[in-house]
Design goal:
The chain is 40% helix and 18% strand. By secondary structure, the protein is an alpha/beta fold. The radius of gyration is 14 Å and the shape is globular. 24% of the residues are buried.
Length: 117
């Protein structure tokens, strides 16, 4: 589903085209990690560039190209994510099977310990 991930320049063009409209940027930490793994964008630069337009975030972990893992089960720098997310954004965990109920609860606790939730 890589073709569904907008690149940094595409996000900027969309936000610019609809400047003044009630449109914001929904950041997906796992997709940003996958794009960085592929050399397409830097996760930190994406957050820094669009932090003022972020209205929400999908929270899940990733390991290499595998995303939608419970937070704490991959290699995403959640300290960096916490530091760059603006206050008040909507936060949604987006975990896919085969994650267990216990792993999802652990992921919630992980995000709380990181100060994200």
């Amino acid at each position: 589903h890589l073709h569904e991930f907008p690149l940094g320049e595409e996000i900027g063009r969309i936000l610019e085209e609809f400047s003044g409209a009630p449109i914001g940027y929904w950041h997906d930490v796992g997709h940003a990690h996958v794009l960085e793994t592929l050399g397409a964008v830097k996760h930190r630069e994406l957050l820094e560039r669009y932090c003022q337009r972020i209205v929400g975030v999908h929270l899940h972990d990733a390991d290499g190209l595998k995303d939608h893992l419970p937070p704490g089960k991959g290699s995403i720098d959640f300290d960096m994510v916490r530091d760059l997310l603006p206050e008040g954004v909507v936060k949604v965990m987006e975990i896919h099977p085969p994650a267990t109920k216990g792993e999802i609860i652990e992921g919630l606790e992980f995000l709380k310990q990181k100060g994200i939730l």
